[in-house]
Amino acid sequence: MIRTLRDLLLFFTRDLRIAGTYRAPFVLELIEALFGAAMLYFVARFVDSPELRAALPQGSTYFAYSLVGFIFFDYLNASLDSFDRSLEEARDSGTLEPLLVTQVSLPVMLVGSAVYPFVVTTLRIAIYLAWGAALFHFPLHAANWLSVAVVLLGTLLAFCGLGILSAAYLLLFKRGNPAKWFFLSVSGLVGGMLFPVSILPGWLQVIAHLNPVTYALDAMRAALLDGANLAQVAPTLLILLLFAAVLLPGSVLGFSWALRRTKITGTLSHR
Amino acid sequence: MPDAAITVDSLEKSFPPAFSGWRAFAQPFVASTVPALRSISFQVKPGEAVALLGTNGAGKTTLLRILATLLLPTRGTVRVAGFDPVREPAAVRRHLGYHAGSDLGFYPRLTGRENVRFFGRLNHLSDSYLRTRIPVAAGQFELGGVLDRQVRTLSAGTIQRLSLLRALLHQPRVLLLDEPTRSLDALAAADFRRFLKTEILARQGTSLLFASHALPEIEFLADRIALLDDGRLVAFDTAAALKCRCGAASLEEAFSRLTGHSASLLAEPTSS
Question: In terms of residue numbers, what domain contains B166?
Fold first, then answer.
């Protein structure tokens, strides 16, 4: 266990060092987050209406509601992208085979390579929230940070399964995963990113409730905007963990199978 | 210590036929019907150097990749340092150094030292060991002056040497090299062969299995030669015995007589 954690840290340090050789992106991210938050603020001011406020959770503004949805999708993106992107980069740079003949297993390598993008995404989200609170009255003071942390962990576990499945697809078919883009598009529509699921037609609401993103966003908004404690987010969190319990082992099995197939077909490092 | 450093027993490997267009979607699920290795058997003794010689497509790289745990055999068994690459891949990797012969495989924005240290740590070598081992090994490969430069600024030959350093860092019992001097100039290649012979083979007693097209390199390094043709092991013996067997004056001539191919086919330096 300690060795695995040490291996994961090695991958994080590697990515941090590589990122450190590029100076500009951090400053650009900081500015991008400011523009992103400002855009949502002005959209919210423009569309604010009594009907909309009635559809929102108690005491919430549309700006706060949409900002949480917007930044949360960053997490979904990072989860779906990190695993297959790290695999793709290793394959294209020729580091995949040297990595595979070390003592580290491919699953550890994949997870290790995803640590840095997750940390960066978390930092980016923190910057968004900081801009939102400093300039546009985002109610950070209302948050229950323990609940936020637990919901975030549950979300990561559920979303990682999707990311690992995406990497398995890449191993087999060598190119980007169409299912990933479909999932992102569907989640953008029915996941509750910019509007509540309750305003959707009934059949779309059914799809929304089959999607872990819906539960993750619900729980995160409750923890961040309503200050919900662990007991209050527990029912939603439980459903999220149920998704994780199915997706994580399923994706690891799928990935192992895909890896074995590529070792049989000799296409492990093919593009 | 096992009797043999490498054992290859009735090894067979087939690949699925390559599809293009829409049929490529079925590629991962297609049965393997194109043979690449056909019932190969031989052993490499501890401390011995064996060369894999053959034209492109003879199966040299496929064989090395099976031993390196990067491919699964279709039939037959192999053992590296006494371990089975299919059932005990981690144990095999612990005793294995593998160099694929390319000048890729590093993070270009990291320095040579950072790269080598990263891979060394993934092989569970301690920081203190790496602090002393990397400068010593870099000195042997004449990399001392470039170790702290970003890999993207290094020449192909230097990256090749860095790759060999990485393969040898954990002092493996078995070393697999796929055309190790492909990107080196003549002088660097000669130095490298001398280093392999005196340091790795003679002093450290490492067993070596390498694929090469360079006949002088093979005669200089190899105790025995595994001659492959179209996935079959045509002959396995010393260079002198191979020449004697077919009454040839040179290894080049012996290759032509034993495989029926012109030795000029060996000039194409592409791995099979």
Answer: 105-171
